[in-house]
Amino acid sequence: MCMKQKLSILLVLIIVQFQSCIFFPFDIFYSGESSSIGSQKGCDESTSVKFLREGSAIDLEGVRGKKIYYAVINYKSEKINPSGYVLNFNANINEPKAEEVSKDSIRLDTSASSGKPHGPVHCISPLLSSVPEIEVHSRNARAVDLSQKQKFNRTKEFYTSYKENPDRANHDYFYVDVDSSITGKNPRLEKKEATLYAKGIDKDSGELVCLVWVINEYAKELSNGETSETKVSVQVAQDIADSFAENYKLERAVLGEEYEGLLGNDGSIDESFTLKEYGPHGNYINFIIYDIGNDFSSENKTGIAAYFYSKDYYDSDSMQSNRGKFLYLDSHYCNHSGVDDSGNDIFDADNDECSKIMLSTIFHEYQHMINFSNKDIRNKLEKKDTWYDEMLSMLTEDFFMEHLGIAGEAGSVVNQRVPGFNDFYWACGVGENLSGDLAILSYFTSYTFGAFLVRNFGGIKLMKEMSQNPYVNWDSIIDAIKKVTGTTYTQKQLLELFVQSCIFKSDYALKKNYPSFNKTCDYIEEFSSLKFNPFDLYSQELNSTYTKEAAEEAPSGIALIENGPLFFARNNFSETIPPLGFNLHYAGVSNSSSLRLEFATSLDESVNIMVIVQD
Predict the structure, then answer these.
(1) Which are the contacts of 122, defined by CB distance < 8 A and separation ≥ 6?
(2) Could you give phi then psi for residue 561, rounded to 5 degrees?
(3) Quick one: which of 245, 336, 334, 321 has its CA closest to 289?
């Protein structure tokens, strides 16, 4: 019996300008509060944290001179209109000064120069929405029937002959996309000639680890002296090979290992059909460098930076498989050399070293390959969501930052994602998969939520469990936290703690042992160079666009008070609150020791208001 089997294509897009305004809904993921593993721990209240459990009021004591914040949290599977959850006037709160607040409701205008989401975006689409539909069997059936064994036997003979052909030593032909519809329903894939530009050798074992191929028209040394930002030098290719060969074992130690075989055309598995013995290029990682999507021009220097496409794990001509372990890298992003004062990317046509963004990206993409092995092949899990897989890849970049020497730089994942989260957290909920131009908002939220998880529930140990456990999405997160900490948290509790980590300032959170991004994480001794470094959500380097210094550029409805996440004024909200999303509000400073906050609302169990008090 056959079924349509989803495969993954994982891409990195660099989006510089958008032309449309935000709207909802998109492809939304929500699993509900659905884990029954072990006992549960409540999200405890304290003198600093109060919930509107019932009624419409919250009473606070000992709060004179303290700042009052509150969050409206949406636990629902659909967006809500937040306008009914307002804080009534209270004469005992000194609100922000009039010049610090603009009054109308906020909208995200992606065409506005100051309100434009920016940064690398990683998109995942199922294969069957991207190439002609192919009927394949479920991977659940590991047994291979007689006809499948015969097909494998014939292919083994072909591969043996292929590998012994000396003409294939330094040149080969690979299926690559030839226009930007790689992200659409019918990408055009063609075989293009490539030259082997570099080999990565494991210095400890002396074994060959990876091959770096450059499609000929993008190979600098084959261009008769012509220079271009899209042409890659041998030195750049060798940087990629050396970096991967030096570090791949570290990534495997945390995440696990990629699959070493090929899947039958129907998704079945023959354990004896190994890439090492029968793959066209052995079991090496193959990097293919070219202008992905063929979209580079003097006017358009954006596009796809890299991707992993699981079709290459299939022994299938109809899927246009390259039959092996392949990662695709964009040539001009290999030549990325920084950003100018306006934040525009700079590409160096004479670059002789690979960009740090691309070096970080190859380990991001390698996570996708390993994750495909862990979740899709070994555990036969079919409902892995974009936000979860991308969260793991961005966290991989995170724990490699210091090791690769890019911590604190503009190209690091913290500096790419957190400022965007501070600006736009209110536009995308945790676990929400937005699409198109707004996909970047999902990555702001997914990374920042993941950064909160690892820094509060076990560091590298938690990362290891999330990657290697037999679950995906929220179930994977909840199970991993239980394994590392011994305590089961529900989805709802984790969301509440995440909101707290976004409001509490670092010093106050650490003093009170509240959740924070600025915590030193556990690491594992045998690979101690990999760790999640603490960072301050409220630091100037990770500053939101909408601070007092940029008041004239801010959208309306913002309490312009400090660095860090955008805080709405008392009775202003975003147009909607997305699923598993929230709005943060700054009410002001209490001028009374006892304070009653009254909200014009009647809550149900899927929406709540959390009040935060801090010095």
Answers:
(1) 10, 11, 12, 13, 364, 390, 393, 394, 439, 443
(2) -120, -30
(3) 334
Of all helices (H) and strands (E), which one includes residue 283?
strand 280-283
> What are the pLDDT digits (tens) for 253-284?
999 999 998 888 777 777 777 888 777 777 89
Q: What is the DSSP letter of 6?
A: P
At 555-600, the pLDDT tens digits run: 667 776 678 998 888 778 888 899 999 999 999 899 999 999 998 8
Residue type, 93: I
Classify residue 162 by burial, with Cβ atoms within 10 Å: 0-12, 13-18, 19+: middle
Three-point CA angle 586, 592, 598, nearest 5°: 55
Number of Cβ within a 10 Å radius of residue 576:
21
Q: What's the predicted TM-score (pTM) here? A: 0.85
Q: ω before 25 within 30° of 0 (cis)?
A: yes
Q: Which burial class, exposed, middle or buried, applies to 517 when counting CB atoms under 10 A from its CB (0-12, 13-18, 19+)?
A: buried
Contacts of 468 (CB under 8 A, 6+ apart): 255, 256, 374
CA distances from 524 to 253, 401, 403, 481 (A): 10, 16, 14, 16
Distance, CA of 552 to CA of 446 (rounded, Å) = 30
d(CA 313, CA 489): 36
Residues in contact with 500: Cβ distance below 8 Å, sequence separation at least 6, in sequence order: 49, 514, 515, 610, 612
CA distance to 68, 481, 484, per residue, from 40 (Å): 29, 12, 15
For position 195, what pLDDT does the model report? 92
User: At residue 71, does pLDDT exceed 90?
Assistant: yes
State the Cα–Cα distance between residues 16 and 4, nearest whole angstrom. 35
b (16+ CB within 10 A) / e for 87-113: beebebbebbeeeebbeeebebebeee
